[in-house]
Amino acid sequence: MTVTQWQPPVDQLAGHCRVVKRGRWLAGWAELEVQPTEAGCRLVWTEDVRPRWMPRAADPVVARVGTVLFDRTLRQLAREL
């Protein structure tokens, strides 16, 4: 992975980071934005990552499976906290 953009939060301005994945098995990018709120901060995570060997026609299925697995992982991490 390569960090292609990096802007740390300053005062009340949001921070931003973009990471590009150029691996053998997966390719894509992720963007993270940290926004200040009155209660602390909010993280917005947007990504487009896909297996290199899979045709684009399979993207809807891959996206759904990825969403389910990602959601399950986050819920498990939240329970452990």
Can you summarize this structure?
This protein is α+β, with helices and mostly antiparallel strands and 81 residues long. The protein contains 1 helix and 4 strands.
Protein model, in words:
With 81 residues, the protein is α+β, with helices and mostly antiparallel strands. The protein has one helix at 59-80, and strands at residues 2-7, 15-22, 26-37, 40-51. The protein has one domain (2-80). The protein has a four-stranded antiparallel sheet, with no helix packed on it. A hairpin with a 2-residue loop joins strand 3 (26-37) and strand 4 (40-51). The two termini are 27 Å apart. The mean pLDDT is 89.
Q: Approximately how much beta-strand content do the residues carry? A: over 45%
Q: Residue share in helices?
A: 25-40%
Sum up the overall morphology in one term.
globular
Biggest sheet strand line-up? 1-2-3-4
For this entry, what is the oligomeric state of its chains?
Answer: single chain
Number of helices: 1
Give me the strand/helix succession: EEEEH
Question: Using only CA atoms, what is the Rg?
Answer: 15 Å
- Name the average pLDDT: 89
Count of β-strands: 4
Structural class: alpha+beta
List low-confidence stretches: none
